[in-house]
């Protein structure tokens, strides 16, 4: 007995997937491009590189892919839902779906989104009937990853983003001001005490990276690990600069990279930066220095935990430029998160400002 179609669709809606825009060449001498939003995309093989898409037989895209023998897939990031809706036909009155975004022409002639999370340009090698759909298997001729950011997701017929679980545990490093040893130049690394196992340094932007590299090299020569922080990490206008700087610090070899809040940050901006930073700095880990400012610091700490951060710098007692460790411990207990405190021994932690 056939199953109920509505129940079948409801069951399939519980399977979350990424979102991509499938593009191909149109008919006519100009081969005007055509595209649609699709979530039925999958990898098939690494050798040879093959992927598949499933297109409804009633769709113009299916006919055009079949006739042209080519297609491309642009994988959308979390901030590109508007493009997904546009190519899904959810914006009435739009006559040119390719407007208001930058597209480049791939080798097959199919357009790909210039700032997609990734794109793949394909030649059709197989086409299989699949009920009311056709399964196209394409050989990947070219692919690029223009940027690294969290993906756009589709679940239960709605657009969404990753909802990360809370970590099982966090580490709180308490650093009283009296125990911070300033290191301004690579030569100052020589002042590190024998029992130190790592140093910290801070940068403001990527223009500080040359000096940061020298500090890191001096520390490495002494067998010391480095933790690099980016100052003013949660100001919206600096987002691209901050993410680029964090990535560069990871490239230097920092075991951890940190985000320091200077201007008061909104939870939404903290989420935007940390969600992308966690992806871009692997295998390094992200840590944060947050401010208290009227209790919003704890909201930002919760957002940081939900964004995958497990290392927090805090202060004992109340301080305008730091998150009180006692408040952070209480938050962790209320959330059922194990809290491992890491008090800093005198002069064991070195801090430098390279700006």
Give a verbal description of the structure.
By secondary structure, the chain is an alpha/beta fold. It has two domains: 5-160, Electron Transport, Fmn-binding Protein, Chain A (Pnp Oxidase, Chain A), CATH 2.30.110; 169-353, TIM Barrel. It has helices spanning 5-12, 60-68, 81-87, 209-221, 239-252, 267-280, 296-306, 325-335; strands spanning 17-18, 20-25, 33-38, 41-45, 50-56, 70-75, 103-105, 111-113, 118-130, 133-144, 153-155, 158-160, 169-174, 181-182, 198-203, 225-230, 256-260, 285-289, 311-314, 338-343, 349-353. Helix 7 links the parallel strand 18 (285-289) and strand 19. The longest helix is centred in the last third of the chain and has 14 residues, at 239-252. The protein is elongated and about 70 Å long. Mean pLDDT is 86; it is low at 177-182 and 344-349.
List the helices and strands and how they pair.
Elements: H1 5-12, E1 17-18, E2 20-25, E3 33-38, E4 41-45, E5 50-56, H2 60-68, E6 70-75, H3 81-87, E7 103-105, E8 111-113, E9 118-130, E10 133-144, E11 153-155, E12 158-160, E13 169-174, E14 181-182, E15 198-203, H4 209-221, E16 225-230, H5 239-252, E17 256-260, H6 267-280, E18 285-289, H7 296-306, E19 311-314, H8 325-335, E20 338-343, E21 349-353
Parallel strand pairs: 13-19, 13-20, 14-21, 15-16, 15-21, 16-17, 17-18, 18-19
Antiparallel strand pairs: 1-11, 2-3, 2-6, 4-5, 5-10, 6-9, 7-8, 9-10, 11-12
């Amino acid at each position: 007995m056939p199953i109920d179609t509505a129940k079948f669709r409801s069951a399939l809606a519980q399977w979350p997937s990424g979102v991509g825009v499938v593009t191909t060449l149109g008919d006519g001498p100009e081969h005007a491009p055509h595209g649609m939003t699709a979530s039925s995309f999958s990898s098939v093989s690494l050798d040879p590189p093959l992927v598949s898409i499933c297109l409804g037989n009633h769709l113009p895209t299916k006919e055009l892919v079949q006739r042209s023998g080519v297609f491309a897939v642009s994988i959308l990031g979390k901030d590109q839902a508007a493009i997904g809706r546009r190519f899904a036909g959810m914006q009435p009155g739009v006559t040119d779906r390719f407007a208001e975004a930058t597209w480049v022409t791939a080798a097959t002639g199919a357009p790909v989104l210039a700032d997609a999370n990734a794109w793949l340009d394909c030649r059709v090698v197989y086409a299989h009937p699949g009920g009311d759909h056709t399964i196209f298997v394409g050989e990947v001729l070219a692919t690029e990853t223009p940027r690294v950011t969290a993906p756009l997701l589709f679940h239960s017929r709605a657009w969404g983003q990753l909802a990360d679980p809370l970590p099982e545990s966090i580490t709180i490093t308490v650093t009283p001001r009296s125990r911070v040893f300033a290191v301004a130049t690579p030569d100052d690394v020589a002042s590190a005490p024998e029992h130190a196992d790592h140093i910290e340094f801070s940068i403001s932007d990527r223009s500080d990276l040359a000096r940061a590299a020298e500090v890191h090299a001096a520390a490495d020569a002494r067998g010391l690990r480095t933790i690099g922080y980016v100052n003013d990490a949660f100001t919206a206008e600096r987002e691209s600069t901050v993410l680029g700087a964090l990535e560069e610090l990871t490239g230097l070899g920092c075991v951890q990279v940190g985000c320091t809040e200077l201007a008061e940050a909104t939870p939404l901006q903290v989420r935007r930066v940390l969600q992308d930073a966690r992806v871009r700095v692997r295998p390094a880990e992200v840590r944060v220095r947050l401010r208290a400012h009227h209790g919003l610091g704890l909201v930002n700490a919760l957002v940081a935990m939900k964004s995958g951060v497990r290392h927090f710098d805090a202060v004992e007692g109340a301080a305008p430029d730091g998150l009180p460790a006692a408040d952070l411990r209480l938050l962790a207990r209320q959330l059922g998160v194990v809290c491992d405190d890491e008090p800093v021994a005198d002069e064991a932690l070195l801090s430098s400002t390279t700006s």
